[in-house]
Amino acid sequence: MKKIMVAVGVTAVLSFAQFGGGFGGGFGGPQGSGGVPNSDKTADVNYVGDGKPYHTLDIYVPKEAKESYPVVIHTYGSAWSSNNMKGSADLSTICAAYVKAGYAVVTPNHRAANDAKYPAQLHDIKAVVRFVRGNAAKYKFDTNFVAVSGFSSGGHLSSLTATTCGLKEGKSGSVTVDLVGDLGEFTSFSSCVDGAVLWSPPTDIYTMNPISMGGSGTMEGAFIGVEREGNKDKWMVASSPYYASDDDPPVIMFHGTSDNVVNIEQSQELYDSLKHHNVVTEFVKVSGGSHGGDKMNSSENLSKAVAFLDKAREAKAAKAPDTTVADTSKKDTAVVDTSKKDTTVKDTTVKDTTIGLIPKFAKFFDIEIRGNHLFVRGMEGAFRYTIIAVNGSRKFSGVFRKELDLSSLPPGIYGIMAESPSGVTKIIRFVRK
């Protein structure tokens, strides 16, 4: 891929990144402030519990009263250089469209490059996902569907969140990074998501056209902690196309054909990687669209984004129409090695490497109830579960790993059957008060 160096002054880049690039040329792009119409806002919630402003988020819930709302976590763009732009996260455009369609919207801050280097920012967004799941009852979140969305560098973090589901570590050559982190009090919850909407996203940090900081390195280098030359492995582990696999959630990308900040090939590369793995994905090339702005945020594109999320929700519900128990099947346990990847050939390694690798002698396991969770001990892999109410009126089924959240079951007495990957079955009684 041809590399084009975009030279701009340090002050200009940081100004555009921090304040959205009022002329459409900044890495953050024009995102706008204001509010989200027809929503009730809860502001400045700390999702880690450390009192840091960069670990706060805002919540927008539709005014239309419902029992619960599916969730979209939307992350601002800033070239990873701002730690407090949740108030400028496309509120009156992208976020407003989600709320209008009935979704609760969460807009988080995250650490900037000068606060911490990658993968700290990915840890932050995954902590937000777990926070949403851990606070479902408090904020009326429907955790049967939690999606991510993001613009520019926020789209990059969202793309990583979507494609690294189920992975504990990412590895390229001698470089290994933790893809999950341990932030917040909800570390037992999954950080997987059910869909992603990416707006003008950088995806492959190693192959993208770099943004110069005017003689003092690049914005990408500041984010990674080292410049690209001689550090391919460190840049590859921050690139979402290399993590693409068959079990990724549906992803839609919007990218302007005239985007001179993040080249459109970035979305094309992730799209091709996802298609290679038969992931449900769409790529909307916006004719004449720049990096953000009115053409990108047109009513047509906003409607396409909402329709894509709605379709992903329907598809997930159709797979398990009677299941209200949270599916924790994609716990972050596997490792992906990107050391043998390049920009044209993608590794087809399946992320959930524990499936099919259970030793023949590992036929015994234990299950136990602690609180509202079912835990498995003694065996790794994907377990099938069936839950039957004693009166036979309700039946739930699905797949989980290590832990199954039972908190969404209605009060009652249930029999839970867990079948191991080797075919061994155990049954336990559970009382939901």
Structural write-up:
The protein is α/β, with parallel strands linked by helices and 433 residues long. The chain has two domains: 310 residues, Rossmann fold, CATH 3.40.50.1820; 97 residues, Sandwich (Immunoglobulin-like), CATH 2.60.40.1270. 22% of the residues lie in helices and 26% in strands. The strands form four sheets. The protein has an eight-stranded mixed β-sheet, sandwiched between helices. A four-stranded antiparallel β-sheet has the order 15-14-17-18, with no helix packed on it. The longest helix is centred in the C-terminal third of the chain and has 21 residues. It is globular and about 65 Å long. The protein starts with 9 loop residues before the first helix and ends with a strand. The N terminus is likely disordered.
**Proportion of helical residues:** 10-25%
Could you name the CATH class of the largest domain?
Alpha Beta
Low-confidence stretches: 1-26, 321-329, 340-363
The total count of strands amounts to 18
Q: Gyration radius, to the nearest Å? A: 21 Å
Q: What global shape is seen?
A: globular
Q: Report the portion of residues in β strands.
A: 25-35%
> Termini separation (Å)?
59 Å
CATH homologous superfamily title of the largest domain: Alpha/Beta hydrolase fold, catalytic domain
State the secondary-structure class: alpha/beta
CATH level-3 fold name of the largest domain: Rossmann fold
Instruction: Tell me the quaternary state.
Output: single chain
Q: What's the pLDDT, averaged over the residues? A: 83
Count of folded domains: 2
